[in-house]
Amino acid sequence: MDSSTESPNHTIEQVSGITVRLAGDSGDGMQLLGTQLTNTSALAGNDVATFPDFPAEIRAPRGTRAGVSGFQVQFASEEIFTPGDTLDCLVVMNPAALVTNLGDLRKGGILVVNEDGFIEKEFKLAKLDKNPLEDEILESTYRVVKVSMTKLTRAAVAEHGLSVKLADRCKNFFAMGLVYWLFGRSLEPTLRFIEAKFGRLPEVAQANESALRAGWAFGETTEAFGISYRVDAAELNPGTYKNVMGNQAMAWGLLAAAELSGKEMFYGSYPITPASDILHELTKFKNFGVRTFQAEDEIAAVCATIGAAFGGTMGVTASSGPGIALKAEAMGLGMIMELPMLVVNVQRGGPSTGLPTKTEQSDLLQVMFGRNGESPLPILAPQSPGDCFAVAVEAWRLAVECMTPVVILSDGYIANGSEPWKIPDVASIEPIVVKHPEGQSADGDPFMPYQRDENLARPWAIPGTEGLMHRIGGLEKEDGTGNVSYDPANHQHMTDTRAQKVAMIADRVPEQELFGAESGDVLVVSWGGTYGACHTAVQRCQQAGLSVSHAHVRYLNPLPRNLGTMLKQFKTVLVPELNMGQLRMLLRHHYLVDCIGVNKVQGKPFTVTELVEAIRDQACVGKDCTVVDKILKIRVG
Amino acid sequence: MNLPVLKAADFASDQDVRWCPGCGDYSILAQMKKVLPELGFPREKTVFISGIGCSSRFPYYMNTYGMHSIHGRAPTFATGLKTTRPDLMVWVITGDGDALSIGGNHFIHALRRNLDINIVLFNNRIYGLTKGQYSPTSTEGQVTKSTPMGSIDHPLNPLSVAIAAEATFVARSIDAHVKHLEMTLKRAANHKGVSLVEVYQNCNVFNDGAMSYAQDRKQRPENTIELEHGKPLIFGTERDKGIQMIGNRLEIVKTADVAVDDLLIHDEKTPDPALHFMLSRMRYPEFPEPIGVFRDVQGIPTYDDQINDQIVQAREKKGQGDLQALLNAGDTWEVA
Fold first, then answer.
1. Under a CB-based contact definition with an 8 Å cutoff, are residues A525 and A573 in contact?
2. Which of A70, B120, B202, B236 has a CB 3.0–4.6 Å from the CB of B24, allowing a cystine?
3. B64 and A469: CB-CB below 8 Å?
4. Which residues 315-374 on chain A approach chain B with CB closer than 8 angstroms?
5. Under CATH, which number does the domain A520-632 receive?
6. Are B66 and B45 in contact (CB under 8 A)?
7. A258 and A264 Cβ atoms separated by less than 8 Å
8. Would you state the CATH architecture of domain A3-231?
9. What digits encode the pLDDT tens for the residues A327-372?
10. Which fold has domain B8-227+268-304?
11. Which residue range or ranges hold the Thiamine pyrophosphate enzyme TPP-binding domain (chain B) (predicted)?
C-alpha cells in the first residue's frame, strides 16, 4: 500500500497492484464480469493477468460447491506475470462460492458478499449446516461488506419492466459497478460493451446499464467501504496494446503465418475444451481465405488437414490431449509423408477425459513419443497468452522450412488467460518463404519427390503441377525416388534422416536464454504456461539474495543446443511442471543431469509462493538463510 | 491450345503392380486407365487417395498424383484436398473393410456432405490384405479365418447406407463386366457431387466365387438386373421377368402376366431416396441384384463449392481480410 488521499466521503488508497476474484454460481455471469474488469483495467494502462476457473458442466448443479465459477484477475502498475497468489478482494454471490474461495483471501482482505444469496436453501446446497456469515472469525479476519445485491438490482432495473428472472440476471452488472467503484475503474468500456452486446434487446441493455450504475452509486453513497483503491498505469514498453486471450492470439498468429507465407489456411478440428475457441475465432475470418472444417471426429480433422497440406494449403489442426491421442496415427503419417502442417494441443488435465476445464502440462511426452515407430516431430510451447501469436508464426516457419508437421503445446491456463499484448507490425515480421517446385515436361527426367535440400527437406510438389506426378503414403519410401521400399538399409537411412532433420532445427533457432547469472546454486528450468509463476518466483528469490537463475524453454524438440552446458553450471536444476516430471525426464535423458522436480497436478497453476519455497529450499541447503527468509516472508519448517 | 491426346498407357505409373494373379483389381485398374483419357482431364490435376487394403495400393499404379493414407480415412484426406483445391478431380479408392468397418464414419459423412469426389468401393466381402478374415459385407454364416463357426454379423449393405445418407450418385458394377464398369466409372466421374461406385470384385485367394452369381456371364442375366433411367425393370435370360411394386413391396413378376407400364420404372433422378433404397435391398438369391446407376441426383450444392462460396461471400461483404487492421481494431491503448 503506497499512499493515501482523503476524498469527501472516503479514503482513496494508492496501491501498486490488486488481485480480485469474482466467484458465483456457474450461471451468475462471473466470467463476463471478470472479462470486463480485465479489459477495463488493461485500458486503464495496468498490466493484467487473469485466471478463469469454471466447472466442466455447462450448468453444474446450482448453488453447489461443484458449480462454483470463478474469475481471478491481477491488475498492477508494474509488470506482472501471474494472476496473483492471494486475493486482496473476493466477491462472492452465494455460500458455495464463499466456502470454496475464502482460503485464498489474505488476512485483512475485502470480502464482498451478496447477502441475498445467503439463505437457508443455499446453505443446504452448499452442504453447510449454518450461515457462514455468522462465523465470528469472518468479521475479525476480513473486511466484510454485505450487500443486498439481488434486491438492489431488482429495484434498479424495475423501470425497464423485465421479469424477475431477467432482472436477477443483471446482478452481475451490479456487482461489476460496485467493483469498478472500489478500484476506480471507468464505466465507459463496459457501457460500450453493453451497447454492442445487447443493443438489439434495448430493455436488457438498459437494465444492465442501470444495474451497473446502481452498483457504482452504491459504493459511492453508502460508505460501506470507507475506502477505495487506485492503481496507476504500468510502465510497459512503448507501443499500442490490446488485451488478448491465448486462444485468440493463437488464431491471429495462424492468420499472420498464412499471410506471411502467402498461403490460405485450412483449419480442421473437432470441438474440444479448451481448444474450441480457436475454431470459433477462425470462423470469423473467412474473408482472409480461412476454410474451417468442423470434422466428424478428431481423426477426420487431422486427416483433412493433411489432405489440404498435400494440396499446397497451410493446414492446421488443433485439439486437446484426448483428441491428440486420436490424431496420433495420422500425425505419424504426416511425419513420414514429410508434409508441413501444424498440430496445436491446448493441454488440459488428463488422463483420458481428465479435468476438461482445468489446466495441466502432461501431454509433453504424448506429443514427443505418442506415435508408433520412430516419428520425431518438432515441438514448441508458448509461454503466455500473447506469446501464442509469435509461436504460431514460428512453428509454421519451421514446418515449411523442414517439410514436417510441427506441434504447438499450449494449455488451458494460457488459452483462457489474458494479458496486455503489444500489437506487432506485421509488415516488419520476416516473410515465410514457400517454394513449390515448378512444372516440367512429362518426358523430362523423372521427378524425385524425396530429393532433399540443405535442411533435409523434400520438395513440396503439389497436385496440378505438370510433370511432377508422384505418390506419397504411409509405406516407407526410398529416399530420392519416393518409391515404396522395404530395403532394410533404406529404412535405417530414412529413419536417421527424419531424426536428423528435426535435430538440425536446433542450429537455426535461438540459443536458450538465461534470466540471471550464468552459474550458481539453482537453475529453474520451465516450459509453457508456467513461465509467469516461475519468472516471478525467481525474480523474488534473486531480490532476496538467493543464487538462482531461470531458463524458460520454448523449443522442446529439439532442445536448445546450449541447454546441456547451461544446466551443468548450476549445483541444482529445479524443474517445476504441472505434470509428474516430463521435461525432467527428458533433461535427465539428454544431459545426464540429476534434475529435481516441482510437480503438481491439481488442475491449478503454480502459485508464486509455492515456487519461491521450492527454490529457497534448494538454494539454502547448507546455508544460513535467516535474512533471506525474512525478506521472502516465508515461514520455514 | 492443343491438349495432348492421352491413352490408357499414359495413366500407368512405372511401378510393378503387385496384386495376386487373377485378382479382380486388375480389371478395375484397366477400366480406370481406359476411362480417364476419355474424360480429357489433365493427369496432373487428377488425384487418387486410398486407405489400407489390397485395393488401396491402387494409387501407386496410376501416373497421377496420389496418396496412400491410413486405414479407413481416405474420404477425410479427400475432404481437405478437394475443399482447398476444387480444381482437382479426386478419386477415393477403398475396399469393403476399409470403407465400411474402420472407415464407416467417414464414408457416411463424405456422402452426406456431397463432397465432389468419386468413391470406388471394391467389395469382395473379405479381408484380403490381412489374409482372410470376414468383412462387414461377408454373408451371415461365412466361415473364415476369424469365424470358424460362421460369421454371426449381419452384413452391411453399402448402397443402402449410401442412399440413406442421401448420396447424390450411387451405382454398382462388376469387375468382370468390363463394359458396364467402364460406363459406370465414366458416369461417376461426370457427376457433379459425391459419387459412389460399388464394384463386385473377386478375391480368388480368400473368397473365390463369392459373387460368381453376378460375375459369371451365364448366370448374370438371371441373377442381376440392369438399371436404366426411365426404363422398366426387366431381367432374365429370356427377359421374361420384371419387378413390380405390389402394395409397399417389390415383387418378381412374369412379364407375360403384366403390362410393361405396370412394372417399376427406374427413376435415378428423383431426390427421394425411398425407392432407391428399396432397390438396394434386392439381394440374391431372393431377387436379382441391381447393377448400374441407382441414383443420379443433380443440382445439389457440393460441399467444396459451398465452403468456397462462403469465402467469396465473406470477401464481398467485408472485403479482403486486412490482418493489421484486425489487430489494431477494438479497444487498444498507447504506452508512450
1. yes
2. B202
3. yes
4. 315, 329-330, 333, 337
5. 3.40.50.920
6. no
7. yes
8. 3-Layer(aba) Sandwich (3.40)
9. 999 999 999 999 999 999 999 999 999 999 999 999 999 999 999 9
10. Rossmann fold (3.40.50)
11. 52-199
